[in-house]
């Protein structure tokens, strides 16, 4: 048996198309143009690539895109002052401060300064708390993408056994909450968990969000399980280039899984698409319009 490939590229493109259609409707019916402000501090090359991609996709969806670049040595107070200005800017519905921030800046203080109604990264404690309480919330984009990819295979996740490996605030924890909202039965694993292979073997749904190249082996996976690989790890490749691998040993897992996301071309594709979804949702909530489907 060879697993079917969950094509994040196609699923993300469909999602962006749906967002663009909703943006056009909100603009024509209500005169509201959803706007996303991205704040980039310093010049980390990977962050610059992400910010460019967010800018391009935001514009392609018909939204307003505002970029704010600050030097790596910006004062904490100046960064927070910019966030506060964006909080009160009526053309901005979503605020994203690109992480990680350069050393010396207090990430928690910056995230906490964002108006929770505009917190499209879903990292503000108000949104994290609302999500954990089962209340409507802006949820982090990568876990949202994971759920959409899973639902491209399984219409309902009710009663399924899921394992989430990794418990970061960005991926693992919110993913657990979203899976609970879908009525899955969830095991949360982390660096102190014992016998991961045995825990994985019981799971119908495996989510790997660890940051360790190919840690999850093919023989850990229950035959037919759905595997969502969040990991993005850069390894040395041929001719001095680098290659990307996930947290799952893909070639091995292909032989046991029922469906699997590739790296690249899986979860990574969904993250920015879900950022657009969150920005549209935030704009609708701020203007008291019906939430998009
Ligand atoms: P973090 O480093 O914040 O968290 C890693 C988690 O993995 C921690 O909870 C840690 O446990 C756990 N862990 C580490 N080692 C082991 C181990 N040996 N066994 C079991 N669990 C372990 O990473 P992130 O959550 O931010 O990211 C995870 C991966 O996802 C990375 O590869 C990252 O690049 C990728 N990523 C991809 C995105 C995308 O768009 N596709 C977006 C965001 C991240 P403990 O808590 O005990 O330390």
TrEMBL record:
Residues 140-284 form the Tetrahydrofolate dehydrogenase/cyclohydrolase NAD(P)-binding domain. Its EC number is 1.5.1.5, 3.5.4.9. The keyword Hydrolase applies. GO terms for cellular component: cytosol. NADP(+) binds at residues 166-168, 232. It catalyses: (6R)-5,10-methenyltetrahydrofolate + H2O = (6R)-10-formyltetrahydrofolate + H(+); (6R)-5,10-methylene-5,6,7,8-tetrahydrofolate + NADP(+) = (6R)-5,10-methenyltetrahydrofolate + NADPH. One of its GO terms (biological process) is tetrahydrofolate interconversion. Residues 6-121 form the Tetrahydrofolate dehydrogenase/cyclohydrolase catalytic domain. Keywords: Amino-acid biosynthesis, Histidine biosynthesis, Hydrolase, Methionine biosynthesis, Multifunctional enzyme, NADP, One-carbon metabolism, Oxidoreductase, Purine biosynthesis. Pathway: One-carbon metabolism; tetrahydrofolate interconversion. It holds the Pfam family THF_DHG_CYH. Gene3D superfamilies: Leucine Dehydrogenase, chain A, domain 1 (3.40.50.10860), NAD(P)-binding Rossmann-like Domain (3.40.50.720). CDD domains: NAD_bind_m-THF_DH_Cyclohyd (cd01080). One of its GO terms (molecular function) is methylenetetrahydrofolate dehydrogenase (NADP+) activity. SUPFAM superfamilies: Aminoacid dehydrogenase-like, N-terminal domain (SSF53223), NAD(P)-binding Rossmann-fold domains (SSF51735). Homodimer. Catalyzes the oxidation of 5,10-methylenetetrahydrofolate to 5,10-methenyltetrahydrofolate and then the hydrolysis of 5,10-methenyltetrahydrofolate to 10-formyltetrahydrofolate. PANTHER family: C-1-TETRAHYDROFOLATE SYNTHASE, CYTOPLASMIC, C-1-TETRAHYDROFOLATE SYNTHASE, CYTOPLASMIC-RELATED. This is Bifunctional protein FolD. It comes from Tardiphaga robiniae.
């Amino acid at each position: 048996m060879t697993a079917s490939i969950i094509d994040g590229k196609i699923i993300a493109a469909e999602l962006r198309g749906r967002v663009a259609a909703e943006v056009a409707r909100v603009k024509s019916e209500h005169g509201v143009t959803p706007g996303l402000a991205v704040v980039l501090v310093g010049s980390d090359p990977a962050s610059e690539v992400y910010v460019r991609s967010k800018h391009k996709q935001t514009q392609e969806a018909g939204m307003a895109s505002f970029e704010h670049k600050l030097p790596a040595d910006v004062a904490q107070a100046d960064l927070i002052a910019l966030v506060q200005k964006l909080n009160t800017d009526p053309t901005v519905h979503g605020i994203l401060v690109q992480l990680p921030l350069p050393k010396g800046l207090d990430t928690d203080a910056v995230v906490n300064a964002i108006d929770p109604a505009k917190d499209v990264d879903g990292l503000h404690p108000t949104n994290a708390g609302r999500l954990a309480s089962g209340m409507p919330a802006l949820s982090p984009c990568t876990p949202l993408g994971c759920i959409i990819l899973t639902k491209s295979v399984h219409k309902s996740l009710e009663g399924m056994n899921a394992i989430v490996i990794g418990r970061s605030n960005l991926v693992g924890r919110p993913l657990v909450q979203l899976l609970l909202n879908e009525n899955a039965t969830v095991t949360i694993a982390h660096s102190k968990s014992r016998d991961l292979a045995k825990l994985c073997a019981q799971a119908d749904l495996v989510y790997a969000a660890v940051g360790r190249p190919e840690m999850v082996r093919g023989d850990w996976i229950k035959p037919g399980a759905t595997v969502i690989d969040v990991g993005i790890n850069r390894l040395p490749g041929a001719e001095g280039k680098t290659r990307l691998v996930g947290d799952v040993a893909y070639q091995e897992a292909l032989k046991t899984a029922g469906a699997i996301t590739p790296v690249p071309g899986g979860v990574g594709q969904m993250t920015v698409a879900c950022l657009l979804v969150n920005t549209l949702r935030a704009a609708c909530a701020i203007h008291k319009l019906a939430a998009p489907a």
